[in-house]
Amino acid sequence: MTTDKHLRALERLYHAAPINRSFPSKLSLPALGESRLEFEVSEEHFHAAGAAHGTIYFKMLDDAAFYAVNTAVEDVFILTTAFNLHMERPVPAGRVWAEGRMVSGRRRLFVGESRLLTEDGEEIARGTGTFMRSKIPLVTLTGYRESDDMAGDSN
C-alpha cells in the first residue's frame, strides 16, 4: 500500500469508530508522523462547573498522538500503553485543534506527542504517549479497507 493510501485508510478508520459518534471530530493526516484533529466543544461536554470535562483533553490528545504514530505502522493497529496529560487552561466552547506527531519508534514501542489549541492558536494542553504494536491487522478493521465507503460521513 502506498503511503497516501495508508493515510487515507487511517482517516477512514478513525471516522468509522463508534466512539466518534459521541465526539464528532475530523481527522486529517497530512504526512507520515503527523496528524490534525478538529473538534467542536459545546456545553454538552461541560462538567458541573461550566468548563469542558477532562475527557475532552484525553480524547483529543490521545487520538492525535495515536494516529500520528500509526501513520508509521502500515500492517497492524497500535495500542496506547500510557499517556501523560498536562492541562494548562480550561477548554473553551468552540472549535479546538489537536496536532500530533510521532517522536520515536521502530519495532514494537513508539512515542508520540500532541498539543491541544484554541482556534486562535492558544495552547490549552499537551500530551505524550507510548504506543505498541498489536496483533490486529489493519486490513481486518472496518473503515481501513479501501472498499469501506465512508462517503457522506460527517464525523
TrEMBL record:
SUPFAM superfamilies per UniProt: Thioesterase/thiol ester dehydrase-isomerase
InterPro entries: HotDog_dom_sf, Thioestr_dom
Molecular function as annotated in GO: thiolester hydrolase activity
Domain Thioesterase: 50-124
Taxonomy, superkingdom: Bacteria
Gene3D superfamilies, alphabetized: Hotdog Thioesterase
Name of the molecule in the record: Thioesterase
